[in-house]
Amino acid sequence: MKLVNVQLNKRFVVYKCDAGEEVYKAGDMVVLDTKEGTKMGKVVSNSGGGCSGLSKRVNTILRLASYEDQKREAEKEQKAVEALKICKQKIAQLNLPMKLVDVSFSSGGEKATFFFVAGSRVNFRELVKQLASELYTRIEMRQIGARNEAQIIGGVGCCGRPTCCSSFLSKFGPVSIRMAKEQGLSLEPTKISGLCGRLLCCLAYEADTYAELKKSFPECGNRVDTVYGKGRVVKINVIAQTLLIELKDGQQVNISSDEIKNRAN
Predict the structure, then answer these.
(1) Fewer Cβ atoms within 10 A, N terminus or C terminus of the chain?
(2) Of 232, 230, 211, 237, nearest in space to 221 by CA
(3) Are 13 and 40 a contacting pair, CB within 8 Å?
Protein backbone atom coordinates (compact mmCIF):
# COMPACT_ATOMS: atom_id res chain seq x y z
CA MET A 1 0.00 0.00 0.00
CA LYS A 2 1.43 3.39 -1.02
CA LEU A 3 0.57 6.03 1.58
CA VAL A 4 0.53 9.80 1.49
CA ASN A 5 -0.33 12.23 4.28
CA VAL A 6 -3.29 14.50 3.66
CA GLN A 7 -4.44 17.41 5.81
CA LEU A 8 -8.15 18.12 5.82
CA ASN A 9 -9.38 21.56 4.85
CA LYS A 10 -9.50 24.02 7.75
CA ARG A 11 -8.33 21.33 10.20
CA PHE A 12 -5.03 20.34 11.78
CA VAL A 13 -5.84 16.63 11.47
CA VAL A 14 -3.70 14.66 9.02
CA TYR A 15 -4.90 11.38 7.51
CA LYS A 16 -2.85 8.49 6.22
CA CYS A 17 -4.29 7.81 2.79
CA ASP A 18 -3.96 5.00 0.30
CA ALA A 19 -2.79 6.57 -2.96
CA GLY A 20 -3.24 3.41 -5.01
CA GLU A 21 -1.06 3.50 -8.12
CA GLU A 22 -1.23 7.28 -8.50
CA VAL A 23 1.64 9.66 -7.66
CA TYR A 24 0.77 12.73 -5.61
CA LYS A 25 3.06 15.54 -4.54
CA ALA A 26 2.92 17.96 -1.63
CA GLY A 27 0.41 20.73 -2.29
CA ASP A 28 -1.95 18.65 -4.44
CA MET A 29 -5.63 19.03 -3.56
CA VAL A 30 -7.32 15.63 -3.44
CA VAL A 31 -10.73 14.08 -2.77
CA LEU A 32 -10.82 11.43 -0.02
CA ASP A 33 -13.21 8.64 0.82
CA THR A 34 -13.49 8.57 4.65
CA LYS A 35 -15.88 6.99 7.12
CA GLU A 36 -17.46 10.45 7.53
CA GLY A 37 -18.06 10.66 3.79
CA THR A 38 -16.25 12.40 0.93
CA LYS A 39 -13.74 15.02 2.12
CA MET A 40 -11.24 17.33 0.46
CA GLY A 41 -7.70 17.89 1.65
CA LYS A 42 -4.16 18.86 0.73
CA VAL A 43 -1.25 16.45 0.37
CA VAL A 44 1.43 17.46 2.90
CA SER A 45 3.86 14.58 2.42
CA ASN A 46 4.37 11.97 -0.28
CA SER A 47 5.27 9.19 2.16
CA GLY A 48 3.46 7.35 4.95
CA GLY A 49 5.92 8.42 7.63
CA GLY A 50 7.78 11.41 8.93
CA CYS A 51 4.76 13.58 9.70
CA SER A 52 3.89 14.28 13.32
CA GLY A 53 0.26 14.23 14.37
CA LEU A 54 -0.86 11.42 12.09
CA SER A 55 -4.22 9.78 12.61
CA LYS A 56 -4.11 5.97 12.59
CA ARG A 57 -7.06 5.89 10.22
CA VAL A 58 -6.25 4.95 6.62
CA ASN A 59 -8.52 6.43 3.98
CA THR A 60 -8.55 6.22 0.20
CA ILE A 61 -7.72 9.00 -2.22
CA LEU A 62 -10.34 8.95 -4.95
CA ARG A 63 -8.75 11.48 -7.29
CA LEU A 64 -7.12 14.85 -7.69
CA ALA A 65 -9.59 17.61 -6.87
CA SER A 66 -10.83 19.26 -10.04
CA TYR A 67 -11.75 22.93 -10.41
CA GLU A 68 -15.40 21.90 -10.01
CA ASP A 69 -14.59 19.96 -6.83
CA GLN A 70 -12.86 22.98 -5.31
CA LYS A 71 -15.67 25.27 -6.40
CA ARG A 72 -18.26 23.01 -4.75
CA GLU A 73 -16.13 22.85 -1.60
CA ALA A 74 -15.97 26.66 -1.44
CA GLU A 75 -19.73 26.87 -1.95
CA LYS A 76 -20.30 24.28 0.78
CA GLU A 77 -18.10 26.25 3.18
CA GLN A 78 -20.01 29.44 2.43
CA LYS A 79 -23.27 27.58 2.92
CA ALA A 80 -22.01 26.34 6.31
CA VAL A 81 -21.16 29.90 7.37
CA GLU A 82 -24.69 31.05 6.51
CA ALA A 83 -26.24 28.02 8.21
CA LEU A 84 -24.31 28.73 11.42
CA LYS A 85 -25.46 32.32 11.40
CA ILE A 86 -29.10 31.34 10.88
CA CYS A 87 -28.97 28.64 13.55
CA LYS A 88 -27.42 30.98 16.13
CA GLN A 89 -30.15 33.52 15.50
CA LYS A 90 -32.88 30.93 15.96
CA ILE A 91 -31.27 29.56 19.13
CA ALA A 92 -31.36 33.09 20.55
CA GLN A 93 -34.97 33.63 19.44
CA LEU A 94 -36.09 30.34 20.98
CA ASN A 95 -33.99 31.02 24.09
CA LEU A 96 -32.46 27.54 24.02
CA PRO A 97 -29.73 26.70 26.60
CA MET A 98 -27.17 25.48 24.08
CA LYS A 99 -23.93 26.67 22.47
CA LEU A 100 -23.54 26.06 18.75
CA VAL A 101 -20.05 24.86 17.77
CA ASP A 102 -20.04 23.85 14.12
CA VAL A 103 -22.07 22.60 11.19
CA SER A 104 -21.15 20.02 8.58
CA PHE A 105 -22.96 19.40 5.29
CA SER A 106 -22.89 15.98 3.65
CA SER A 107 -21.10 15.78 0.30
CA GLY A 108 -24.36 16.09 -1.60
CA GLY A 109 -25.79 18.75 0.72
CA GLU A 110 -28.82 16.57 1.56
CA LYS A 111 -28.10 16.71 5.32
CA ALA A 112 -26.74 19.33 7.71
CA THR A 113 -25.34 18.21 11.06
CA PHE A 114 -25.16 20.87 13.77
CA PHE A 115 -22.80 20.25 16.70
CA PHE A 116 -23.56 21.89 20.03
CA VAL A 117 -22.68 21.75 23.72
CA ALA A 118 -25.21 22.06 26.53
CA GLY A 119 -25.29 21.51 30.27
CA SER A 120 -28.46 19.45 30.10
CA ARG A 121 -30.92 17.88 27.68
CA VAL A 122 -32.31 20.35 25.15
CA ASN A 123 -35.69 20.20 23.41
CA PHE A 124 -34.75 21.37 19.91
CA ARG A 125 -37.74 20.08 17.95
CA GLU A 126 -38.92 23.57 17.02
CA LEU A 127 -35.37 24.58 16.10
CA VAL A 128 -35.02 21.58 13.75
CA LYS A 129 -38.39 22.34 12.19
CA GLN A 130 -37.47 25.97 11.49
CA LEU A 131 -34.00 25.11 10.17
CA ALA A 132 -35.36 22.45 7.81
CA SER A 133 -37.92 24.86 6.34
CA GLU A 134 -35.31 27.57 5.81
CA LEU A 135 -32.32 25.52 4.68
CA TYR A 136 -34.34 22.99 2.62
CA THR A 137 -32.31 20.05 3.88
CA ARG A 138 -32.47 17.30 6.49
CA ILE A 139 -31.30 18.46 9.91
CA GLU A 140 -29.42 16.51 12.58
CA MET A 141 -28.55 18.00 15.98
CA ARG A 142 -25.61 16.33 17.73
CA GLN A 143 -24.69 17.14 21.32
CA ILE A 144 -20.96 16.90 22.06
CA GLY A 145 -18.71 17.28 25.11
CA ALA A 146 -16.06 19.85 25.96
CA ARG A 147 -13.25 17.72 24.50
CA ASN A 148 -15.12 17.24 21.23
CA GLU A 149 -15.68 20.99 21.08
CA ALA A 150 -11.94 21.61 21.39
CA GLN A 151 -11.34 18.93 18.75
CA ILE A 152 -13.59 20.71 16.26
CA ILE A 153 -12.42 24.26 16.98
CA GLY A 154 -8.72 23.40 17.26
CA GLY A 155 -6.04 25.58 18.77
CA VAL A 156 -2.53 25.57 20.20
CA GLY A 157 -1.74 23.79 23.44
CA CYS A 158 0.56 24.87 26.26
CA CYS A 159 3.38 22.96 24.52
CA GLY A 160 3.17 25.32 21.53
CA ARG A 161 1.89 22.63 19.16
CA PRO A 162 -1.62 22.09 17.72
CA THR A 163 -3.87 20.37 20.25
CA CYS A 164 -3.64 16.56 20.20
CA CYS A 165 -7.41 16.18 19.81
CA SER A 166 -7.49 18.26 16.62
CA SER A 167 -4.35 16.78 15.10
CA PHE A 168 -4.18 13.02 15.65
CA LEU A 169 -6.34 11.64 18.48
CA SER A 170 -9.20 9.62 17.05
CA LYS A 171 -10.75 8.83 20.44
CA PHE A 172 -10.40 10.07 24.01
CA GLY A 173 -8.99 7.82 26.71
CA PRO A 174 -9.36 8.18 30.47
CA VAL A 175 -7.14 10.79 32.18
CA SER A 176 -6.88 11.10 35.97
CA ILE A 177 -5.31 13.48 38.47
CA ARG A 178 -3.27 10.53 39.72
CA MET A 179 -1.35 10.57 36.45
CA ALA A 180 -0.20 14.14 37.17
CA LYS A 181 0.81 13.14 40.70
CA GLU A 182 2.80 10.16 39.45
CA GLN A 183 4.74 12.45 37.10
CA GLY A 184 5.46 15.01 39.81
CA LEU A 185 3.57 17.77 38.02
CA SER A 186 1.96 20.80 39.58
CA LEU A 187 -1.65 20.08 40.49
CA GLU A 188 -2.73 23.64 39.77
CA PRO A 189 -5.74 23.30 37.42
CA THR A 190 -4.52 25.94 34.96
CA LYS A 191 -1.25 24.03 34.45
CA ILE A 192 -2.66 20.56 33.86
CA SER A 193 -5.84 21.46 31.96
CA GLY A 194 -6.26 21.80 28.21
CA LEU A 195 -8.19 24.37 26.20
CA CYS A 196 -11.32 22.33 26.87
CA GLY A 197 -10.96 22.81 30.63
CA ARG A 198 -10.44 19.07 31.16
CA LEU A 199 -7.22 17.33 32.19
CA LEU A 200 -4.56 17.34 29.46
CA CYS A 201 -4.80 14.27 27.24
CA CYS A 202 -0.99 14.06 27.16
CA LEU A 203 -0.91 13.21 30.87
CA ALA A 204 -1.81 9.67 29.85
CA TYR A 205 0.96 9.26 27.26
CA GLU A 206 3.76 8.48 29.74
CA ALA A 207 1.69 7.44 32.76
CA ASP A 208 2.49 3.74 32.40
CA THR A 209 6.21 4.45 31.94
CA TYR A 210 6.35 6.62 35.06
CA ALA A 211 4.46 4.02 37.09
CA GLU A 212 6.89 1.31 35.98
CA LEU A 213 10.02 3.40 36.64
CA LYS A 214 8.83 4.40 40.12
CA LYS A 215 8.47 0.77 41.23
CA SER A 216 12.17 0.61 42.10
CA PHE A 217 12.03 3.81 44.16
CA PRO A 218 10.87 4.38 47.73
CA GLU A 219 8.11 6.94 48.21
CA CYS A 220 8.72 10.52 49.29
CA GLY A 221 8.94 10.72 53.06
CA ASN A 222 10.29 7.21 53.46
CA ARG A 223 13.53 6.68 55.38
CA VAL A 224 16.34 4.90 53.59
CA ASP A 225 19.88 3.71 54.29
CA THR A 226 22.31 5.08 51.69
CA VAL A 227 26.06 5.04 51.10
CA TYR A 228 26.09 8.48 52.75
CA GLY A 229 24.18 7.31 55.82
CA LYS A 230 20.53 7.18 56.78
CA GLY A 231 18.17 9.81 55.48
CA ARG A 232 14.70 10.71 54.28
CA VAL A 233 13.48 10.85 50.67
CA VAL A 234 12.60 14.46 49.86
CA LYS A 235 12.09 14.31 46.10
CA ILE A 236 12.21 11.80 43.25
CA ASN A 237 13.33 12.58 39.70
CA VAL A 238 11.95 9.70 37.66
CA ILE A 239 13.49 10.82 34.36
CA ALA A 240 17.00 11.23 35.79
CA GLN A 241 16.46 8.17 38.00
CA THR A 242 17.73 10.02 41.07
CA LEU A 243 16.47 10.81 44.58
CA LEU A 244 17.03 13.87 46.74
CA ILE A 245 17.87 12.61 50.24
CA GLU A 246 17.97 14.67 53.41
CA LEU A 247 20.56 13.17 55.77
CA LYS A 248 20.47 13.27 59.59
CA ASP A 249 22.70 16.36 59.72
CA GLY A 250 20.30 18.25 57.43
CA GLN A 251 22.52 17.99 54.38
CA GLN A 252 20.75 17.11 51.13
CA VAL A 253 22.33 14.90 48.47
CA ASN A 254 21.25 13.61 45.08
CA ILE A 255 21.78 9.89 44.68
CA SER A 256 20.89 7.15 42.22
CA SER A 257 18.81 4.14 43.15
CA ASP A 258 22.01 2.05 43.16
CA GLU A 259 23.29 4.09 46.10
CA ILE A 260 20.46 2.94 48.37
CA LYS A 261 21.71 0.14 50.60
CA ASN A 262 18.30 -0.81 51.87
CA ARG A 263 15.03 0.80 52.81
CA ALA A 264 14.79 1.65 56.46
CA ASN A 265 11.03 1.70 57.58
Answers:
(1) C
(2) 232
(3) no
The b/e string for 202-234 (b: 16+ C-beta within 10 A; e otherwise) is bbeeebeebeebeeebbeeeeebebeeeebbbe
Q: Which CATH number fits domain 217-263: 1.10.3720.10, 3.40.50.280, 2.30.30.140, 2.30.30.100?
A: 2.30.30.140
Phi (first) and psi of residue 75, to 5 degrees: -65, -40
Angle at 25 between CA 105 and CA 31, to 5 degrees: 20
* Domain ranges for the chain: 3-65, 70-147, 173-214, 217-263
What was the pLDDT predicted at 211?
86
Q: How remote is the C-alpha of 213 from its chain's centroid?
A: 26
- Cα separation, 233 vs 256, in Å, equals 12
Cα–Cα distance for residue pair 258/111, rounded to 1 Å: 64
Output the pLDDT for position 10: 64
CATH class, domain 70-147, is alpha beta
pLDDT for 56: 54
